[in-house]
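input
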Amino acid sequence: MPDIADRQPFEAFETLRPLSGRLSRRHWLAGAGASLTALALPPFAAAQPTEGLTADGFRLLRARPGEARLRGPTAPATPIWGYEGLAPGPTLRARQGEELKIRLVNELPQATVIHWHGLRIANAMDGVPHLTQMEVAPGASFDYRFTPPDAGTFWYHSHFLSSEQMARGLFGALIVEERAAVDVDRDVVLVLNDWRLTNAGAIERGFGNFHDAAMAGRLGQYITLNGEDSLELPVKTNERLRLRIVNTANARIFRLRIAEHVTRVMAVDGQPCPPEVVPDGVLRLAPGTRVDLFLDAALKPGSRAPILVDDLRGGELEIGHLVYGDGAPLRAQPLAAPHPLPANPLPDRFDMAGSLTIDVPLDGGGMAMMMRGGGMGGGMGGGMGAAGFRGHGLPPQDRIWALASVASSGHDGPPMFSVPRGRTVVMNFTNRSAFPHAMHVHGHHFRAFAGNGPALRPYWLDTVIVDPEHSERVVFVADNPGKWMLHCHMIEHMATGMAAWFQVT
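output
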């Protein structure tokens, strides 16, 4: 199984304060003391838009205020910002090779954009303000038109003031379906997120504060799946599910497992891979990562099996159950082991001899500042220039993180590199900080090397975890022309310097 599963969880560098009041339907298995609430899922229901197509064939996607019952059906609703007022937004579905037409209508008090995470589409549609488009002002709209070349699990989210707008709920899943039907009984989208809420259930403000930015990022104490507070997932014996899991959190790396079941990874970051049983059943999911699992419901009728997530303290939190019906099995025997999903048209022949190699050290953060005597404290913009990084588009006090010793907004200044279309690019990410980073490349997918040698891991990624004091070496063919962003998907790290852009000519 890939790197998303085989490492230990990082230690939380932020104390999650306990909440007052009763915790509904919660079971701590270890590490009790903080009040992380549980993952949840409304049974198999993908959110649907409230509007149909426009006269010119666009699907409306309105970014607007709304409400979500993040703490359960009996607790007061939480005011959020969401696409169609929902968090997550509507699950968008398209067919591989067919055009998708989306009209973003901004009904928020802030400007916004939409980035289509993981899609290898035309650069003008990538949704990065100042790099590929201008932000969409309040009351304005923008038309996105693109044809997804790849089938798989993707997602969409705001890429403007992201630390706030994503934390308020501006994200959703995008599913590109294969041209031919896949041999599963049900297709279930699971959008995983965490929320930082006040005791009254409102979203905690203080977005992008210095402590979050300099440490692990914004970690919430409420965890939801599809925006809900509890999960009772009904299944039938010998049923096969395709579980499309998306981590949309600002910064949290999740370790998730479904007890008493064998799960097979079928795709990572939207790209098919050789089917592989998950070691120990544990998935390690970076922010931005997607994993498609096939799960065969092999227990007896009437069984229950817990779904678990790590509690960041060495234990596990029970977050729901697979609930088997008492009726007859769906079929007499489980299905045979699955065949691989059909491959996508990725450029997979790498010219290593003629490649461009880029070293990208990952530096900065609060621990490094303290070790250099820079201290901690103050808000972002509070005079913290101790990192000493060169910068593009960021004032010195906001240069907390850097790629290759440059703290950038991700669109100002010169490109990190420029490369002609079709050339192979190798990037060496070396994490010299005290925190993990989820490095994400726009417009392309890459392969990771399996060590210091030439062998490649057998799956594609668009986001890779680089743990402290570790390196990850990746390779891709720069086949998509345009200006593309490269950044840490711990959003607060991106906002304070761990961002850059490169150009494919």
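quick obs: The chain has four helices and 33 strands.
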